[in-house]
């Protein structure tokens, strides 16, 4: 029997329709999406418990007091399990799809009831629509309408329509023919006969069809969560793909509550709209005068309407006069509220990178919407323009087939992580299996199974098409498809029992840190070269959002950053991805500014606008730190002024309140005399650098001079000169008053005092000529990394104890600048940080201190948040 390519014919037909009737599908999509947005805005506007009250009043009106109480309890439970927003999305979609279904199905049912020919033609079509697996309707829905709400609604309409058509036809056909004949005998027109006789009598059956249509619509809406339909379907789909029992049960429970409410209410509505039903309700109300009979009393339509209106007005008043819900912190309003759609595959690195970008974009003023998709639906949706960007494209190998199909409709924004690797892994307790070749002949050990992930994943396609056949394993092993979470669940279960198991994995993955696993070597290279994780965007996205595209092109994470981000999300728990990202960002300050740099985006301090006066010495560490703090303070909105002083003037001016703060107090030794003199008018803010030392140094080519004692008798070699720094510094005073006399050098050597720059210039000149020189130096200092110098040992400890570098201020400083004071108390720098900052300033060249500081800050993202945190 020759094969009939029915599938290809259908595919060709769908392609033709899409190419020639695209305008019609766009129109349908706009109508359906507009209806959905309108309904959803209404349902999501009130506070959850107020809207639950409205739904409870409706239930009381239709079914009685008990039904109202139970309805309120059910919807309150949905709110308590944090599924309210998803439930309202689902209810909106059900109502829209149900309304369209009924509007189309009832007339068709009436037509079929009045025409045998139409009934005969409709029956096989309805059989096809009702028996075709529900998932199949999603495929043409995606092609015609992309991903999101619309394809889910269209598929729902098609799936839910048959029972309503059938029940409408059945209800009208069951009307007693004698009644119809009697109406016609009195001269009633066919239209009036239908409206006044047939429809009222058929109404209970028609309402039963409406009830079934709504129930089927609800079931299909849940399935549509796979293609981005949102709502409870997304919760259930996420739970299935991640094997999350808690989320699955909560999402399923919300579906059950919603289904029971819609079922009971649509059933009771049939009684309300039927004349016979209204008479029965009136009799029950008359009998409900006392005892338990009160529970059967139902309010009149007017009273129920008043209750609903009052609750709606209260809800509206709360939205008008109540406080707005606190949204995410916007650090730079680049987006101006523009929305972006980000799709992701429910893999760890996809979840982590997507929610990181969600937080980044929210802080930059955008309103991103994130939605998980099956791999094929994600690429199809991006190609159709329904999804703006995704962060987790594994190229060039894993997602090669999708890229080939859609590359003309997508833009590659570049890779942000790599290289990766795909592999099969087994627990390390499985002996004798080190390569993929070792699996051959051991199918019995692994029960003939390799546990895989999502069936549409590129790794699964590679496994089926190349890896298993390449190693001759395709006949011996079955590749079990499911989900990433299902694979990890099986790995955990087998590992706990020490059972053999083979799973598809990839690197990086946190499973390798949790379990002791063996990556099976791919000796034939069947998996191909390692992938990189790419950012992909729909065609035209970079033109629409050039700033976002630029950020994404520059986005990078290393292995440590990615794995710790994944772990932070794991620690936060299911449903708390954003909290996990924020916890990670707190440990990685400055990442937002690094990922999405915006001039002036830093948060302003509480005292923004304040103008502290900062003094500094012309010493390298003081210049470096003063200009660093100037930059930081300006980013926090302060207006600092800086001015250079010699040591004596600095302490005098600070004690008089003319200088607010300085960062280069060498205590307890080098500047002891100044501290002792002015300490009553000063405040010691604290040390920011430890383990300093004061010393004399000579070039290493000067032999036989290792200590201060070795200088005695060698004055002629050094021309009787020690090259010093500023005359008012503590080190110069110590040198003259204690060090030189202690070693008997005060008569033999003269100390020059032209300043630190002059000392360094003299050192450089002598070093080039390889001339002997003695320089006054201290540690830390960049000169030790530029030149080979010998620190002369101080065996007599004449220089005294090692100093700390401390921030000092006028006594009014803590009260005048409490925020700045708090930052300085917590500020510390390491030797590597300080040396790097000084070197960056040196490299920038003379007169370019601020450029050098900025370059160092660029190389240390997060330094502003670290030095001056703003809550």
TrEMBL record:
Subcellular location per the Swiss-Prot or TrEMBL entry: Cell membrane; Membrane
Gene3D superfamilies: Dipeptide-binding Protein, Domain 3, Glycine betaine-binding periplasmic protein, domain 2, MetI-like
Chief place of localization: membrane
Key words, A-Z: Cell membrane, Membrane, Transmembrane, Transmembrane helix, Transport
Record organism: Streptomyces buecherae
Coiled-coil parts of chain: none
Record's keyword annotation contains Transmembrane: yes
Keyword Transmembrane helix: yes
Domain of life: Bacteria
Protein name: ABC transporter permease/substrate binding protein
Spans traversing the lipid bilayer: 49-78, 90-114, 134-160, 201-227, 239-262, 300-321
Membrane topology, from the record: Multi-pass membrane protein
Entry-linked CDD domains: PBP2_OpuAC_like (cd13639), TM_PBP2 (cd06261)
GO biological process: choline transport; glycine betaine transport
MF (Gene Ontology): amine transmembrane transporter activity; carnitine transmembrane transporter activity
Family: Belongs to the binding-protein-dependent transport system permease family.
Record's GO cellular component terms: ATP-binding cassette (ABC) transporter complex
Residue span(s) of domain ABC transmembrane type-1: 87-266
